[in-house]
Amino acid sequence: MKEFKINDPQPAFIQLLSFFKALADEKRLKIIGLLAQKPQSVENISAALGLSVSTTSHHLSRLSKAGLVSARAEGYYSIYSLNTEKLHQMSQQVLQPQNLPELAPEAVEDVFERKVLNAFIDAEGRIKAFPAQQKKFLVLLRYVVNAFEPDTTYTEKEVNEILLRFNPDTAQLRRSLVEHHLMSREGGGGQYWRTDETP
Amino acid sequence: MKEFKINDPQPAFIQLLSFFKALADEKRLKIIGLLAQKPQSVENISAALGLSVSTTSHHLSRLSKAGLVSARAEGYYSIYSLNTEKLHQMSQQVLQPQNLPELAPEAVEDVFERKVLNAFIDAEGRIKAFPAQQKKFLVLLRYVVNAFEPDTTYTEKEVNEILLRFNPDTAQLRRSLVEHHLMSREGGGGQYWRTDETP
DNA sequence: AAATTAATTTTACAATTATCGAATTAGATT
DNA sequence: AATCTAATTCGATAATTGTAAAATTAATTT
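Predict the joint structure of the above. Result:
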């Protein structure tokens, strides 16, 4: 097996990109269509497309680099033919949903959230002020709720102790956490727990 | 609204081309990867890609025109998400081998053959001279053999009469036609017929 | 050997397009 | 109403790329 990790910037990405670039041209797409009918010489292709031979040769070279066509020498002709397996392989494999996320650069933390946290959390991790905008407030609540362990129950007193690390107004925080379903409370008593994230 | 219908050359071709063009860019391919993870705002995407917001917006617009992503307004955000069905549909359907030939322009008659015929056949359809190159000579033979009906037997005399319309050297023509298996001859007698083309 | 032929490579240019900043639009907040 | 925020559109520029003519290469024919 190969080691792709070190210094190799996603060969799959490069390959996919050159595949799309190879086919992202009117003339080259038509060449694919021509070669799907039968293998042909460069001159023949250029006549069918109304292009000069040199331009056609250039296009064929690009398709060839992407592995979509290949040429065999026959006399002083180059007879190009379609690599149907390659074409099939690319169209089948590479755009499968499960492979797509790998195309992305490392996911960046949400810009909006970072902005809000920068604006309302001080260096000690405490909430400086409560934003009026609900969306921003929710960001803070999600930040706060991380202080609670999943699958653990807390008394109201314990909850308040933890919330006090963020802001003196523990009542509002506690109430909001429950309101927005980030924490759950058992009906009458003082039992709290972090709501399961999976919906 | 615009009228797209009239003079619309192969909508399938156009659609396929714009599909490939949409994905033939590094940044846009990465956007696909990002949106495959989760729907995101323009600002978030631009941060992940290291691009300006306006450039990102432009890329998203291109992807959107190709039908690969769509946006929903949420507050003053545009949350873009991936159209996975469309992506799946395109990658599955459109590059299937049986559809490929339709991408080509109307097939042009073979350039080499046309050249040879122009060079060696006069205005009356007669062979001006016999080319030394075997490949060219074969083109002439295939041209000549069309004067014979399929599934018909001819005597040697009839064959010579027909060949005389092309060139006085009927003996060479007759012999070459048989040699190259364009016509068949019954063992001893003088019965000739056009060889069936299907191999 | 000289001439011919098909293809590739090189060079130069025109067309396209990716990019960004500035201006504008649409929506939300104060 | 005035302000703020995210997104889009516009205008300009830089980079890419499709195109063809000319020069070169490779193979064949005379």
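Chain A touches chain B through 46 residues (CB under 8 Å).
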